[in-house]
Write a structure and sequence with these properties.
Elements lengths: L2 H22 L8 E3 L28 H19 L6 E2 L6 E2 L11 H5 L5 H26 L4 H12 L2 H5 L4 H6 L2 H13 L3 H19 L4 H22 L2 E3 L8 H7 L14 E3 L6 H22 L1 H10 L4 H5 L14 H5 L30 H4 L5 H14 L4 H17 L5 H5 L13 H19 L2 H12 L10 H4 L1 H31 L4 H19 L7 H17 L10 H19 L10 H26 L5 E3 L8 H8 L5 E4 L25 H8 L20 H4 L3 E6 L3 H4 L4 E7 L2 E6 L6 E4 L1 E5 L2 H10 L7 E5 L4 H7 L22 E8 L2 E8 L3 E8 L4 E5 L2 E3 L2 E3 L3 E6 L2 E9 L2 H27 L6
Parallel strand pairs: 7-8, 12-13
Antiparallel strand pairs: 1-6, 2-3, 4-5, 8-10, 9-10, 11-16, 14-15, 15-21, 16-20, 17-18, 17-21, 19-20
Helix pairs in contact: 1-4, 4-5, 4-8, 5-20, 5-27, 8-9, 8-10, 9-12, 9-34, 10-18, 12-34, 13-34, 17-20, 17-23, 18-20, 23-26, 24-25, 26-27
Length: 934
Amino acid sequence: MSNSDKIAEFLMLSTILGVVLGLFFSQALFPNQILSPADHVFASPFFNSTASPDFVRPSNVLLFDQVYQFTPWRYFSWQTLNQGELPLWNPYSSSGTPFVATMQSAVFYPLNLLLTPFPLEQYFLISAFLRLFITGISCYYLAIYYSLSPMSALVSSISFMLCGYLIVWLGHPQSNVAIWLPLSILLTEMMIQTQHKVKLIRLTALLALITGIQISGGHLATSFNIILTLILYWIIRSAFYSQAVPTFKTSQKSLAEFVEASSPSTGSGDGGRSIFLELPQNRSWRAKFVHYLLPISVALSLGISLGSIQLIPFFEWFPLSAEIHRRDIVDWHITLFDTGLWRELLKLPLFLFPNLYNNPTWNDHLYWPFLPWSNYNESTTYIGIFPLILAVVALLTSWRSQPLVRTWAFIALVSFGRIFHLPPFDWLNQLPILDAGSPDRLRLILSFSLSVLAGFGMQKLWHFKDTKINILIDLNPNSPQKDIPFSHRNLAWNNAQKIWLGGCLFIVSMGLLIGLSGNLILPMYQEQIITYGQTRVDRIIAVRGDSLQHPAEHYYTQVEDMVAGLLAVFRVTNVVMYLPILWGLTGLFYLFMLRRGNKLRINTPVDPNKLEIQNLLRYSIVWVIVLDLVSFGYDYNPTISAEQFYPSTTISQRLTEDQSLFRMTALRQDLIPDAHIMFGLSDVRGLDLPIHWYKQYVNLIPERIPWLHYGLIFDDVDSPLLRVLNLKYVVAGKPDKLVNNEHVTNIEQIDELYLAELKTVTPRAFMVYETIISPNDDHTTELLQQEPEAVFRRVILAETTSEWEKFLNLMSPAESISDSAPPSLEQPTETKVVNLTYQPNHSSWQVRTPQAGYLFLSDAYYPGWWAEVNGHPTKIYRANLAFRAIYLPPGEHTVNFRFQPLSFYLGGGISVMALGLILALLAWSAREFREYSL
């Protein structure tokens, strides 16, 4: 294939994928539209006044995390980078949190960095388009490398590009990582096949680069699953190739020529089985190690090193996070049989009918999944009706003859078994490290495996060459096969047709059964379902008491609305629910037309028009798959107008006009964190996994409300433990908590909310002269609970006791102006603390104190913060369980705090060295072997 042909093929493929994605994102292409589910904010009282009159409920209630986590974090990262700073620390939530270290911020993800100069409103569409495009084009070329025809490759490409997993997680960091799976597999396969050392080095460097990129995507569990899949794929394929390798050995043959030589149009068209030769059996173990084990080890090691800029800060943060302390870590053991297996098996119909258990975008009623122990995002494995049938075709017709089919069938089987907790695969889920992840996320691997298999099924069922060869046989009167019917000349092709027929009939039958059951049987149990739902409400009320946002009757009414919604999804008028029936009937039509078109008679001229129509039918299958997947995910990631994108409210304007250094909060869910980040407001609450010490501290506040395990909200602000955190403003939907609080003043009703100001606002930093050295956190907790009012005059300093904290302190300044606590003194009247600058990663303070004491800063304590007093480093103590304090002698002082975590710089240094080595390998291989094109 010439360069011009390759360019033309790439442009044609890009055009097709671009048209498909343009159709999928058509709503967001209009001016003044943003690809975002941010209309979710209008469900909270804070934004009620800005909601449109026709707003009833969010477009997709399950995209909560996108609205209150990922979008605010992306805004903070985008804003900070455009200001020329690195967003290492987030000062706006939970009194400060490490930003890069939590991984999901994905600060250094190349696509995020590339789109930083663009307006934030354009970022979401461009990013989503590019990510899906990368997925589609890399999956296509992987299928082409497998010697599939372009149409078969396109089936694999589109079915994975628009599969359920990628669509439901499109706005989450999972998709940042998942899109690199096809390209990683392609590079791995090329490494296995190549016998050229220079090319092997180049491919190793490229795989390392892609591995590092996907690690920077922000979801370590997905990265881990992909790496495990690469290793498993490498083991299986290397086992096959240890007996057979590609025949080409000349450095003069390009990859494009090799692929073309083994493609269906010129080669066997069976996925590359004809391109292998037997190797000598006396290969040394060293040669096998160098070829099969060393490259993948080097590639993954280099890739992980490249991702160190986020990995090492994460591994520092995770032991200090509340998440690791929340998890029940017990002695490891294996449960031989999961008694909850039946719950997982009930999700099997979702392969065919993804909306069977309701869809969160159907907003006529409140969303409630028919399976209450799961939700739509965690359950979907939809890749389209035709691709799923084609995957079954590949499995049943090519299992014995095609090693690639066996490879992906085995990977799909392992993923399927782990997802649905089938023994013995479920035992893998319980192994150390593997038990930290969610098996549900393996739907990525299963979806990809099935999409690849769909390409092989397409090759088997709709193969051009089979048709052309049989036409030539029928037209040749001297052919010895002329008396054999067409359907019997290729038994595998005939079997593939039977499987296709059976699959289509099964889908149609299942759809009719679902319709009858949902409309005739389910309504008979309506009252029982309502009772079950209201019982769940009672259990929640028993746990959370009066901390709920609404009275019990409100939730009872919601249950009735939800059950009405469950019944409504099965109505015949809900066309989307029953679309798989349409695709099944369409498949039957295609099979009828294909068989009719192949009934060629001997000595009968071939009608070119009929042959062209038959070819058009084949190509139209791709567009039926497109329509299927677009109709499935079209509304899942909603579009809103620019005016609806976190609109400014009267209260947000009032708060942003206050230029002083303060924190605010809202009661209950009247303003859900972290939406305040969009307005540059600092809150004592947060919707990120908090630092362990801060979570411990917040749990001491009586007004803390049980909520999400990673979210913090309060019912009141009466506690001194809360008021000491520089709290100035409180927003509430009801005035009762504010009116009855003696510490609150200036209560003002604005729109439908109430804004109050605290009578006494504690500064962000202040001097204290009474200290206690606490031997452990339990003792500190006890002191804070016994006398919470003492936080305004006393500081409790933590004595380093944990081994992890001791290790981290080795990287902190060991020298201190004074390692002993000063004596307790009365509060001097001449003390003055003035803030000079306050930025995310640094702050400066001018302090005057007539006596020795401690400067207490109500910012969260975390390793990596450094302090200087008059230009000299000093030690930062962990104070009052979760905050910072430094010792100051009498006099005037300039105090600087800087966040420069050694974990970040160490990780960054390793990443830079890894990137340099990767680029050097790529440059060397290109210079050494220019004519051997990738």
